[in-house]
Amino acid sequence: MNWLFSVLLTVHILVALAIIALVLMQHGKGADMGAAFGSGSSGSLFGASGSANFLSRTTGILATVFFLTSLSLAYVASEKPKTTGSLMQESVQSQSVPSVAPAAGDAPESPVAGGSRAQDIPK
Known about the structure:
Layout (H helix, E strand, L loop, with lengths): L1 H24 L4 H7 L13 H29 L8 H9 L28
C-alpha cells in the first residue's frame, strides 16, 4: 500500500504543477477587449479564441484529476494502522529491551570514584 501512496502523491504533485502552469499561461477576460481594438495578440499560436478553449479544457481535466488524486490520497492515508496511544508511548514500547535478572552472586557496581566499588576505596 506504501507504493500506491507514493505513486498517487507523485501524480498529485505533477498535476498541481501543471495546473499552476496552465493558469499562468491563460490570459484574463480583459485581454479580449484589447484584441478587439487592434492591440494585443489576436494572431497568437492557437488563434484568437483557440487558446482559451484548449487551455480551459485542459485545466478542467487536470482539476478533475487533482480532485480524484486528493480523494484517493485521503482514502489511502486513512487505511494506515490506527494508533492506540500517543506517539511517545508507542516509541517507548517499540524500543523496550527485556530485562535480564542478575545472577545470585553478582552485585551491582556503584558509580563511585570512576566506576570502582565502594569497598575498594582505601580508608
